[in-house]
Design goal:
Blueprint: E1 2-3, H1 7-13, H2 16-48, E2 50-62, E3 73-81, E4 87-94, H3 96-99, E5 107-113, E6 116-121, H4 130-165, E7 167-183, E8 186-196, E9 202-206, H5 212-215, E10 223-228, E11 236-241
Antiparallel strand pairs: 1-11, 2-3, 2-5, 3-4, 5-6, 7-8, 7-10, 8-9, 10-11
Helix pairs in contact: 1-4, 2-4
């Protein structure tokens, strides 16, 4: 009998949907945590920020360039006196329409956190609805990733269970067919097989994804060995070829 590699590793090697789902879960979770932190910071600023009048002490432009800025940026240097009586200088980026009418010595209202005057700004960093929308969007990635990965995780666990507790049975390849899955632009194949369980009932299964050169080793009518769970025969995998 031609023995196949470790079935769990063989499955994981080409479990594209599982890996995509896992990436979505990990990346989405990290982004969601960061988004929640930003949202909480925005709520804290709205709750605790104090108001002050700042003076424009300078204006500058950072022109667009291929190396850094994709568009021209407009900045103002502001000076204000905080609640503790100390003077603080901050620089803020403004839209052109807000930046253009300002002149040196212009007065501009700002808000800042009393324990961190460097947070002073004259306008909100983003509209109020952006942080919760970002949280919802990143959370949706986590949910989508979990949905995609769920079936892959269940398949991997089923293979592991069958590997440990299953029994073997003779089977026959019924078909070798193309799938809709491509890896590195190469369309993958699967071998479809059938076997009979301990009760004599006909069961079917499909191999893991096969590259074209691997699929060429299989043909309809070939005798194979299948390993399956006696309690759940639909959980099975192809072990390898067998002699008739």
């Amino acid at each position: 009998m031609a023995q196949s590699p470790n079935p769990v590793l063989q499955y994981l090697r080409r479990a594209i949907v599982l890996w995509v789902g896992t990436i979505f879960v990990v990346a989405g979770t990290m982004a969601c945590v960061a988004s929640i932190a930003e949202w909480r910071a925005a709520l804290a600023f709205e709750r605790d920020a104090l108001a002050a009048q700042a003076t424009v002490v300078a204006k500058r432009i950072e022109a667009a360039s291929r190396e850094s800025n994709s568009s021209t940026r407009y900045f103002v240097a502001l000076r204000f006196t905080a609640s503790d009586g100390a003077s603080h200088d901050v620089t803020e980026e403004l839209p052109f329409d807000d930046w253009e009418p300002l002149a040196e010595s212009s007065r501009l209202g700002v808000r800042y956190l009393p324990d961190d005057p460097s947070t002073a700004r004259s306008r909100d960093a983003s509209p109020w609805w952006v942080p919760p929308l970002t949280v919802a969007f990143t959370a949706a990635f986590v949910v989508l990733g979990a949905f995609l990965a769920r079936s892959g995780v269940r398949r991997a666990l089923a293979i592991l269970r069958v590997q440990r507790n299953g029994v073997e049975a003779p089977g026959t390849v019924r078909d070798v067919a193309l799938t809709n899955t491509r890896i590195n632009r190469v369309q993958q194949w699967q071998a479809h097989y059938e076997f009979r369980d301990r009760e004599g009932r006909r069961q079917t299964g499909v191999s893991e994804l096969l590259a074209p050169h691997e699929a060429a080793d299989w043909a309809p009518g070939e005798f194979v060995v299948v390993r399956y769970d006696p309690r759940l025969p639909h959980d099975n995998y192809l072990v390898g070829k067998r002699r008739p």
